[in-house]
Amino acid sequence: MARFSPLFSGSSGNSYYIGSSEAGLLVDAGRSAKQLTEMLGRIEVQPQAIQAILVTHEHIDHVRGLRVFASRHKIPVFATTGTLRALEEQGISNGSFVCSSHEMQPFTCADFEITPFPTSHDCAEGCGYKVRYADGRTLAVATDLGYLSEEVKTQIIGCDFVVLESNHDVHMLRSGSYPYPLKQRILSDRGHLSNDVCAEYLPELAASGTTRFMLAHLSRENNTPELAYYRANRSLEKAGLHQNVDYLLGIAPEANMAAQSVLF
Ligand SMILES: [Zn+2]
Ligand SMILES: [Zn+2]
Question: How far is the CA of 154 from the centre of ligand 1 (A)?
Answer without folding.
Answer: 21
